[in-house]
Design goal:
379 residues, 15% strand, 4-stranded mixed β-sheet, 4-stranded antiparallel β-sheet, Butyryl-CoA Dehydrogenase, subunit A, domain 2, Butyryl-CoA Dehydrogenase, subunit A, domain 3
């Protein structure tokens, strides 16, 4: 069991004063699919976006485990799941690759804006014909003097409609060769780069996404993240951070939901007794407790192994699979425990269920995680 220091606990507690404001009108914002600039300003003010980045760039210099510990509190306290998702995308999908693999010049130019949130980040991997099969991406980047020229389309780009900086993965080598993918930092407004209109979606509606189009888009070679051909390795590193931090936020959300369901099960009386006394309701609460504790353990244990530079390929797949599916089960249990109230939008529980389903799709579907685990078992 991890023993958190007084400094780590104080850092986590410092976020709690922002919870109420970040949660304000979350049902209404979800209904309107509204990314709130006002809430983003609060996130910036809280210092949350600075957590894992070096102090020389304006960050707080926190390690992975501390960052996760604080983000679990965000999941627990902020009811705006889309905002939580946008925060995570900005920090881990956009900020981490620049911070970990970018040149000093690239960091000097962009890390201050990433740390303080004045430049919102997004990343672009999936394409209309290449979702889970990232190796089939067709967006190409050909060298031309001091530039790479990008052509192609990207889909399902979280934060896309509001982002200023985009980490874009494109093919610079042979098809299906992992050494043929390169990561680029592309700035909004670059000629030949078009950001599409927001796309309506089922859940996480306050985190907007869209398609991107590149037509002879000239990106300076200085904007390559890492080395040409290292994009796949960068993506694998980023995905570990993304999964661990996104789903520790989900663990915080599950814990809050469980406490809410427990309070309701103890106070709601039917047939002369609290509904929690009925075995069918109690079973849902027990399964929710097991789900959050198992998810939390796998996520923190995997983070410790990753921090110790151990191979976590199977661990991350198991952690992602467990946490994403436990969150769906928890959200479904919340709707069922609250009954008719759970089905109403005003209680926010049906929104939790819509949000949770996305977790079984993004960052590698449940089916892909099972396939990966099976492959590592030799079947």
């Amino acid at each position: 069991m991890i023993q958190w220091s007084a400094e780590q606990r104080a850092l986590r507690e410092s976020l709690s004063r922002w919870h109420e404001a970040l949660s304000a009108d979350h049902v209404e914002h979800d209904r309107g699919a509204e990314f709130s600039r006002e809430k983003w300003a609060l996130v910036r003010e809280s210092g949350l976006l600075r957590l894992p980045f070096a102090t020389q760039w304006g960050g707080l210099g926190q390690d992975l485990l501390t960052t996760m510990y604080v983000l679990e509190s965000l999941g627990y306290g902020c009811r705006d799941g889309g905002l939580n998702f946008s925060v995570s995308t900005h920090i881990f999908s956009a900020g981490v690759p620049v911070h970990r693999f970018g040149s000093d010049a690239l960091k000097q130019r962009h890390m201050a804006g990433i740390c303080d949130g004045s430049s919102i980040g997004a990343h672009a991997i999936s394409e209309p014909d290449a979702g889970s099969d990232a190796m089939s991406m067709r967006t190409s980047a050909r060298a031309e003097g001091a530039f790479f020229v990008l052509d192609g389309r990207k889909a399902f780009v979280s934060n896309g409609p509001v982002a200023d900086l985009f980490v874009v993965y494109a093919r610079t080598g042979a098809s299906r060769d992992f050494r043929g993918i390169t990561a680029f930092l592309v700035e909004r407004g670059t000629p030949g780069f078009t950001v599409g209109a927001p796309v309506e979606k089922m859940g996480l509606r306050t985190s907007p996404f869209c398609e991107l189009t590149f037509e002879s888009c000239r990106v300076p070679k200085a904007n390559v993240i890492g080395r040409t051909g290292s994009g796949y390795l960068i993506l694998e590193h980023v995905m570990v951070w993304e999964i661990l931090c996104l789903f520790i936020i989900a663990a915080g959300e599950m814990q809050h939901r469980l406490e809410r369901c427990l309070d309701h099960a103890k106070s709601r009386v039917q047939f002369g007794q609290p509904i929690g006394s009925f075995q069918s309701v109690a079973d849902k609460l027990v399964e929710s407790k097991i789900g959050v504790e198992t998810s939390r353990k796998w996520l923190y244990d995997t983070a410790e192994r990753f921090a110790n530079r151990e191979n976590v390929t199977m661990d991350i797949a198991i952690a992602k699979l467990l946490a994403s599916e436990a969150n769906v089960s928890s959200a479904m249990a919340g709707v069922q425990v609250f009954g008719g109230r759970g089905y109403l939008t005003e209680y926010g529980l049906e929104k939790d269920l819509r949000n949770a389903i996305a977790g079984t799709i993004y960052s590698g579907t449940s089916e892909m995680q099972r396939r990966r685990i099976a492959t590592m078992l030799g079947v």
